[in-house]
What does this fold into?
Amino acid sequence: MTTVALTLVLLVGAYLVAVLEGWTATGRFRPAAPLVAGLALFGRESLVPRRADRILFETAPVLLLVSAVLAAAVLPLAPDLVVVDLATGALFVNAAWAYVMVALVMAGWGPNGAYAMVAGWRFLGQLVAYAMLIVMPIATVGMRAESLAMTAIVRSQESWWNAATQPLGFVLFLLAAMAVAFLPPFDLPTAPGELAEGVAGEYTGVRLAVFRLARLVLVVTLAAAVAVFYLGGWLGPGLPPWVWSAVKTLAVAAAMLGAGRFVPRIRTEHLLEWTWKLGIPLALMNILWVALTLWLGDR
Amino acid sequence: MIWQPLAVAFFGGIAVWFGVAVFRTRSMVRSALSLLASMAAIGGMFLAMEAEFLGVLQLMMMATEMAIMAVFMVMYMMDPGGLGQMDMSHQKRSSLAAGALGGLAALGVALLVDWGPIAPAAPTAGEQTRALGIEMMTRSLMIFETAAVTILVAMIAAVAVAIGRRR
It folds into this structure.
């Protein structure tokens, strides 16, 4: 029952994110556009490039979808609306997101295309940039909850949201989440206008439909994760818990999609410089800050 | 509980299968990703043995590690795509011998070491995480730190070799 509910939530969420993305990208609100575009993809021929590495080419879109769905499986939308409440949930989402990179490297290498390959390796560089900024803020969230279970992390925010007590971690995690989902300005592996859609460039028809759906689901899970880790998840007055989760997730998704439209795409080496020279020291400071506040709070 | 040993055997079989596949392909990327699949299957074995933290950690770490290894393999090998039908293996006899010896040593350790009494049931996932954390911060601290610094040095050396001499 929970699984069915979660699948529906993910599909509706992916649709809403697609509408939002279209709105922020083009400035026009077209609620039917994602459905029409999705159906059109199913009607088109799905080509396989010449001398492609067929196994990697076919696996990549499916693996991307699987990793996004697996991450969603541990995210609680309400106290009882979670597929598996793992004791290591906060680590598990990381594990699931790690395969996003594997899928993109496969999609880059598989089709035997120059642009795709450049894009795939680029995303690996992007992982080197964002990985620490995903893990370190999650560590501090776990420190406050004294648990890696997602439901415990939400319950630890009953007095104050983590976004209020660890603002630095919140900002770093939000930016890193945008980099995981390769949203602008971190859209290096697709880079429209430069790499001609990069990793997705050689995909057409049904395979492209799966790839796009997977990316949308990924955005939904990342936004939901930001809500769970930093914005109190399902907690909130008046409304039912799942409504609060939905509202927060959509708000985060809108912020992620909207913010990127106002900044130019960042270059790989600049991204690595910023994340390693500024981001990681800030993330370490955040760990120290949270440790100190927790220690002083206990005394 | 017939399912538990079956699941362990299933993931073990997958791990061995992909482990063989690593050496059966000429494509460096396929080889690295086969190794990843093998390691991920070992993560599945951990999960099947109710070692939740170790299983999830294995799944997470190996994804990034193997992808980075793929970069180095593509960087250094002359025919990374394996399309040129070039034989990139060497020292086959000594590697066979080393492999056999390593396997025998692992088997010896598994059979000869006194593992102590078998626990009737696995501790809960939360307790395991806590116990691992305490182990990491006490007895195993030096081992992990030494390994980490060694790997870091190797990475810096590899990058330095790749960059070559600069003016």
Remarks:
- The interface with chain A takes residues 27, 29-30, 33, 36, 52-53, 56-57, 59-60, 63-64, 66-68, 70-71, 81, 83, 124-126, 129 of chain B (CB under 8 Å).
- DSSP finds six helices and no strands in chain B.
